[in-house]
């Protein structure tokens, strides 16, 4: 048997390691690059005849040049591109190249790292209910694309939320907490009074014991001195 037969063999070959690192380098830009957000509320409601802000912001760790963006509308029976535009660089504002609806206004700004491409939709109609998607493509990242969707529901009126139950619960919880605090204060006050009472009793006992020793002429007490007898 060859003397090197018992030596441990490497878990990965050089080819495997190179593929592993290549894959990591490929995935790293994807995980740390272009991101698009429409905020935390992805379902919003608006009253018919009013206007609504549809927010959209983007970020990129590698910067952007000639960035392309667009808003699309999608419902069960329709799909259309609402607005489309480009952003030359981080020092310029978005430039609209296509707008399908005059009710739409681009209100975002990409200066000072705001990266905002939000739009306002005016004179809402019930037919405007649907999904609105903000798309972004960054040529600086090999045309990497990302998007985020927000759902708009146009209603006749916004329902008022009844907070009666919530207020009752808060009142009960507040009352219980207040009662507990009051009990703790009363307990501390009683403990303080008892402590002072015990201290006074202790002082009285010490004083009384001293008086008894003096009267009985015990050691440590001052007895009355008798005058010396005459010889």
TrEMBL record:
GO-annotated biological processes: AV node cell action potential; cardiac muscle cell action potential involved in contraction; establishment of localization in cell; neuronal action potential; positive regulation of sodium ion transport; regulation of heart rate by cardiac conduction; regulation of ventricular cardiac muscle cell membrane repolarization
InterPro entries found in the cross-reference section: Ig-like_dom (IPR007110), Ig-like_dom_sf (IPR036179), Ig-like_fold (IPR013783), Ig_sub (IPR003599), Ig_V-set (IPR013106), Myelin_P0-rel (IPR000920)
Membrane topology, from the record: Single-pass type I membrane protein
Superkingdom of the organism of origin: Eukaryota
Xref: Pfam families: V-set (PF07686)
Chain coiled-coil ranges: none
Composition bias type Polar residues, residue spans: 206-216
Entry keywords, A to Z: Cell membrane, Disulfide bond, Glycoprotein, Immunoglobulin domain, Ion transport, Membrane, Signal, Sodium, Sodium transport, Transmembrane, Transmembrane helix, Transport
TM stretches of this protein: 165-186
Localization per Swiss-Prot or TrEMBL: Cell membrane
Ig-like domain location: 29-151
GO terms assigned for molecular function: sodium channel regulator activity; transmembrane transporter binding; voltage-gated sodium channel activity involved in cardiac muscle cell action potential
Annotated Basic and acidic residues bias: 222-231
Keyword Cell membrane: yes
Family membership: Belongs to the sodium channel auxiliary subunit SCN4B (TC 8.A.17) family.
Quaternary state and interactors: A voltage-gated sodium (Nav) channel consists of an ion-conducting pore-forming alpha subunit functional on its own that is regulated by one or more beta subunits. The beta subunit SCN4B is disulfide-linked to the pore-forming alpha subunit. Interacts with SCN1A; regulatory subunit of SCN1A/Nav1.1. Interacts with SCN2A; regulatory subunit of SCN2A/Nav1.2.
Protein name (database record): Sodium channel regulatory subunit beta-4
């Amino acid at each position: 048997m060859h003397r090197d037969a018992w030596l441990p063999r490497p878990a990965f070959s050089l080819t495997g390691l190179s593929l592993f690192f290549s894959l990591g380098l490929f995935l790293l830009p994807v995980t740390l690059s272009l991101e698009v957000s429409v905020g935390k509320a992805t379902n919003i409601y608006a009253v018919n005849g009013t206007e609504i802000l549809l927010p959209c912001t983007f970020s990129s760790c590698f910067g952007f040049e000639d960035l392309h963006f667009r808003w699309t509308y999608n419902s069960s029976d329709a799909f259309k591109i609402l607005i489309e535009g480009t952003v030359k660089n981080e020092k310029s504002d978005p430039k609209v190249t296509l707008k399908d609806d005059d009710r739409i206004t681009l209100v975002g700004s990409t200066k000072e790292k705001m990266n905002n491409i939000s739009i306002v939709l005016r004179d809402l109609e019930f037919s405007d209910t649907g999904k609105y998607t903000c798309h972004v493509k960054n040529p600086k990242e090999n045309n990497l694309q990302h998007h985020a969707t927000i759902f708009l529901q146009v209603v006749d009126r916004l329902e008022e939320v009844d907070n009666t139950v919530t207020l009752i619960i808060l009142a009960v919880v507040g009352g219980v907490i207040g009662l507990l605090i009051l009990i703790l204060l009363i307990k501390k006050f009683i403990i303080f009074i008892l402590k002072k009472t015990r201290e006074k009793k202790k002082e009285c006992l010490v004083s009384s014991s001293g008086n008894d020793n003096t009267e009985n002429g015990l050691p440590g007490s001052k007895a009355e001195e008798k005058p010396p007898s005459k010889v």
